[in-house]
Write a structure and sequence with these properties.
The chain is mainly alpha-helical and 288 residues long. Helix content is 52%, strand content 1%. A two-stranded antiparallel ribbon has the order 1-2.
């Protein structure tokens, strides 16, 4: 056809996913259906019936819900909670893979009925907290609780009950994973991040700071390495508190314990750490 540019014919032709057979008055170009979700019965791939206009006075729409396309109550509940988990993961930048894991965990908890009667927000938050730990993307109770608008006490309770329901033991947060997140937020250089992770690994291996909150140990590791780095990397207790969400005084107490073991913790001439310091500098670290 004269004057037709390459691609015009393809652009004018309706694609498979957007074809519409509705009448002129109905909505056009409706998608053919939602993506399959294997966590729902039969993947929730049922056929939907379009709403039809009733004739006569007091008309309106009939959904024809008694015929086809109606999900059972379990599927409706799961779909709604999966949407809430996705909204939560978007707000605190949790990867999609972790969110999908949280959906699986929530479904298992729901099916056990062992948390029946607990607040849904608490169960959702517990599922997300467990998923984050299992997938190596840990978040704190505070981060998840605030996002889901769930009180810390309720989240703790639901978390413990969920572990029992799922038959898994208490999951320990890796301090080094927290260190990586906090350092990235502060835009640290790669070498300093590696050094802080090294300190965290050794502290966990040597049981230094056992019994303390992993967040406070992670923050103290960052403070320690910051004191041995250049001025652009050095951070105050307050600055680290802003990033980690833990009180400056708590970080100082954790640093006091690390300070005693500083010669053991700090990497000197370690091949896998792209960061340099000396024993003299380590020895002259400022006391807490």
């Amino acid at each position: 056809m004269p004057g037709l540019r390459p691609g015009d014919r393809a652009r004018d032709r309706p694609g498979r996913e957007w074809r519409s057979f509705a009448d002129d008055d109905g909505p056009d170009k409706s998608r053919v259906g939602a993506a399959r979700n294997d966590l729902l019965s039969e993947g929730a791939m049922s056929t939907s019936i379009a709403r039809q206009q009733k004739d006569g006075p007091g008309g309106g729409y009939s959904t024809m819900s008694n015929l086809q396309g109606v999900q059972d109550s379990k599927d409706r509940h799961l779909l709604e909670q999966f949407r809430r988990l996705r909204r939560m993961s978007d707000r605190i930048k949790i990867p999609r893979l972790v969110c999908e894991r949280a959906e699986e965990i929530y479904k298992k908890i729901y099916e056990t009925q062992k948390l029946k009667g607990r607040k849904t927000e608490g169960v959702l938050a517990a599922a997300m907290f467990i998923a984050c730990k299992q997938e190596g993307e840990p978040r704190t109770f505070k981060e998840i609780g605030v996002t889901m608008e769930c009180a810390n006490k309720e989240l703790h309770k639901c978390y413990k009950m969920a572990l029992t329901a799922l038959g898994i033991s208490v999951l320990r947060t890796k301090t080094e994973d927290l260190v990586t997140r906090y350092c990235a937020r502060m835009q640290w250089q790669y070498g300093a991040i590696c050094a802080a992770k090294h300190v965290a690994k050794v502290a966990q291996r040597e049981n230094i700071g056992t019994g303390k909150n992993p967040i406070s140990i992670a923050a103290a590791c960052i403070y320690l390495v910051g004191q041995l780095s250049d001025p652009t990397t050095m951070r105050s207790y307050g600055a680290i508190a802003d990033v980690s969400g833990i009180a400056a005084g708590t970080i100082e107490k954790a640093y006091r314990e690390l300070y005693v073991h500083r010669q053991t913790l700090v990497p000197i001439d370690a091949e896998d750490v792209k960061w340099i310091t000396t024993e003299a500098l380590v020895d002259s670290l400022p006391p807490p």
